[in-house]
């Protein structure tokens, strides 16, 4: 099978809404050949290019009678995969992911072990802020999101109601893992997590 046909077959077999980066086709041929084929698929409408370096198989909604775009979260995750970054939602974005802020912010922020970068995507700005790798590598995605949400609230903004709201989004296993993973976190973050776990055990 030719390089072009291999790329086309991979795209054809993917679920609508799938996001690709060029590295996903590394086994299909040379980088230049793959990028050329991907560009042709964009021109023919078989793929979209939501931001530079990302390709997406369009997903059509029969109910809405239109193509449904990828979420900012999906774009951020795909960019992280492209550049091999570890990321976690930051600030209001972390609060939004945990249901503590129902409005999707216009600037969607993440911390990353990569460089500072911003991307324009539709009505959104996707922003990556650099943080030390150790702040992400020791935490699962769930734990990293919770820690960033707590930091967004701030030490003086962490009330019992807010801790209960965060804990309600986590199952017992996730809460136990969170306590283990934050043993070396800032003392007030560690204490907030311990409080969530203690109340869960008391109410079990």
- H/E element string? HEHEEEHEHEEEHHHHH
Helix content: 40-55%
Query: Which of globular, elongated, flat, extended, rod-shaped describes the shape?
Result: elongated
* Sheet of most strands: 4 strands, mixed
- How many discrete domains? 2
Total number of helices: 9
Supply database-style keywords.
Arc Repressor Mutant, subunit A; four-stranded mixed sheet; 9 helices; 46% helix
Explain what the structure shows.
The protein is of the alpha+beta class and 204 residues long. The protein has 2 domains: 3-61, Arc Repressor Mutant, subunit A (Orthogonal Bundle); 72-202, no CATH class. Helices cover 46% and strands 14% of the residues. It contains 9 helices and 8 strands. It has helices at 3-13, 31-43, 72-83, 92-97, 134-137, 141-153, 160-167, 172-181, 187-202; strands at residues 19-20, 55-56, 60-61, 66-67, 87-89, 107-112, 117-121, 124-130. The strands form 3 sheets. The chain has a 4-stranded mixed β-sheet with strand order 5-6-8-7. The chain is elongated, with a radius of gyration of 20 Å.
Topology:
Layout: H1 3-13, E1 19-20, H2 31-43, E2 55-56, E3 60-61, E4 66-67, H3 72-83, E5 87-89, H4 92-97, E6 107-112, E7 117-121, E8 124-130, H5 134-137, H6 141-153, H7 160-167, H8 172-181, H9 187-202
Parallel strand pairs: 6-8
Antiparallel strand pairs: 1-2, 3-4, 5-6, 7-8
Helix pairs in contact: 1-2, 7-9, 8-9
Short description:
This protein has 204 residues and is an alpha+beta fold.
């Amino acid at each position: 099978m030719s390089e072009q046909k291999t790329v086309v077959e991979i795209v054809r077999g993917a679920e609508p809404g799938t996001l690709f980066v060029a590295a996903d086709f590394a086994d299909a041929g040379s980088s230049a050949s793959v990028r050329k084929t991907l560009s042709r698929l964009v021109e023919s409408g078989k793929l979209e290019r939501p931001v530079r370096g990302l390709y997406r198989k369009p997903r059509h909604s029969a109910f809405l009678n239109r193509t449904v775009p990828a979420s900012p979260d999906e774009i951020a995750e795909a960019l992280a995969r492209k550049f091999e970054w570890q990321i976690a939602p930051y600030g209001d974005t972390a609060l939004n992911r945990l249901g503590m802020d129902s409005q999707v912010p216009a600037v969607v922020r993440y911390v990353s072990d990569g460089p500072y970068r911003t991307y324009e995507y539709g009505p959104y700005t996707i922003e990556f802020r650099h943080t030390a790798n150790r702040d992400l590598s020791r935490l699962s995605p769930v734990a990293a999101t919770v820690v960033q949400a707590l930091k967004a609230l701030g030490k003086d903004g962490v009330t019992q109601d807010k801790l209960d709201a965060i804990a309600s989004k986590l199952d017992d296993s996730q809460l136990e893992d969170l306590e283990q993973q934050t043993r070396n976190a800032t003392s007030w973050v560690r204490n907030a997590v311990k409080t969530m776990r203690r109340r869960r055990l008391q109410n079990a």
